[in-house]
Amino acid sequence: MKKLLISTALMATFALAGCATTGGNTNAGNTMGTASEIGMNVFKAAIDNQCRSQIENQNAWRIASVAMTDAQEEAVKGRVCGCVSEQAPQQVTLIELGNAAIDPQYRTQLVTRVVAKSLQSCYSSIVK
Questions:
Q1: What count of Cα atoms within 13 Å lies in the side-chain half-sphere of residue 71?
Q2: Alpha-helical regions (H) of 1-128
Q3: Cα(42)–Cα(3) distance, rounded to whole angstroms?
Q4: Contact 101/14 with Cβ under 8 angstroms?
Q5: In contact, 96 and 73? CB cutoff 8 Å
Q6: Is pLDDT above 90 for 71?
Q7: What are the φ/ψ torsions at residue 18 (nearest 5 degrees)?
Q8: To the nearest whole number, what is the mean pLDDT of the chain?
Q9: pLDDT exceeds cutoff 50 at 75
Q10: Exposed, middle or buried by CB within 10 Å (0-12, 13-18, 19+), for 4?
Q11: Closest Cα to residue 80, out of 23, 29, 119?
Q12: What's the pTM value of the predicted model, to 2 decimals?
């Protein structure tokens, strides 16, 4: 269900972006910016979900979480995955986002790659 929602949102974003670039629309720049922001927000949400899933599989997390309450675990996950989500835009191109909107397998690979690149560095910097 989440995959369908993300796919639909990304497709709508790129459809809106395509409409925004046609004709003499004086608001085309604003519309394009808004469509890009929506697409990036959807991408960041997918990154956050993948991050939360992957963080629980790490040995360092398992050891550290033993001494934490549920609220502390959520706070740390939120900070770590927030860091990962914030780094995500620097790691993808618009072409990659376009491919991700069309191909679910590519989207999964892209999100996994982006999370893997920054999860450890974000975790290390926040847990220190």
A1: 0
A2: 2-20, 28-55, 59-65, 70-87, 94-102, 104-127
A3: 11
A4: yes
A5: no
A6: yes
A7: -65, -40
A8: 76
A9: yes
A10: exposed
A11: 119
A12: 0.64
Helices 94-102 + 28-55 axis angle, to 10: 70
- The conformation of residue 26, written as its DSSP 8-state character, comes to T
How many angstroms separate the CA atoms of 68 and 36, rounded? 38
Q: What is the pLDDT of residue 18?
A: 47
Q: State how far the Cα of 54 lies from the Cα of 32, in Å rounded to an integer.
A: 33
Residue with the bigger pLDDT between 107 and 9: it is 107
- Among the residue ranges 10-14, 22-26, 37-41, 103-107, the one predicted with the least confidence is 10-14
Report pLDDT for 117: 87
Give the residue carrying structure tokens 């790129």.
14
CA distance 99 to 37: 17
